[in-house]
Amino acid sequence: MANKHIENQIEVTQGLDLEKNELKEVIAEQDQHLNNLRSTGFSLANCYFVFQAVILIVLSNGSIVLGSFGRCLLFTLSVIAAVFNLVVLVKIGISCNKTKAEQDQILYRRNRVQQKLVDLELRSRLNKSEDKTSSNSDGKYRDTRKECQRCIYLAICVIFLLSYTVVVLVGCGKLLGNENGHNLPSNNN
Fold this sequence. Notes:
Helix 1 (2-61) packs parallel to helix 3 (144-177). The chain has three helices and no strands. The protein has one domain (2-177). The protein has helices at residues 2-61, 63-126, 144-177. By secondary structure, it is mostly helical. Keywords: Membrane, Transmembrane, Transmembrane helix.
């Protein structure tokens, strides 16, 4: 009877160790996915800032050569780039938030498995035969505070990007309003 209990406990421990290792692997994969999403987002944002700066420089310095059509084309490209980048960066941010929430769920499950392993070890040391390891380790975990924080951070980033976009588009619009592009409005009071 004691051997049967020990064998059962060893099987449960091995199963929990296997589950813990699988969860660690999933967490590592999600970390890699998050790093890829973040680097893609930063690269896209950097390219967007450089692209808009180049358009502003061309509009301010080369307006005479470009003519009206060329300046309108650059402004249109600027608007298209702004809309495209805003949509893609918001999607990347939402995907990061979703992946992070899934990772929190898996971390919670891994911690529960780890706690079960500790409980088993303590029971074996105390020679208790009661089996409380059959509780559900798939309990749902949701930290709404963290999720709200992530949404707020995403909103702040979007607001920053929108404000940059507004400044660039207003700048492009003012440069388009000038006939020669070199006579920018000045304060001659």
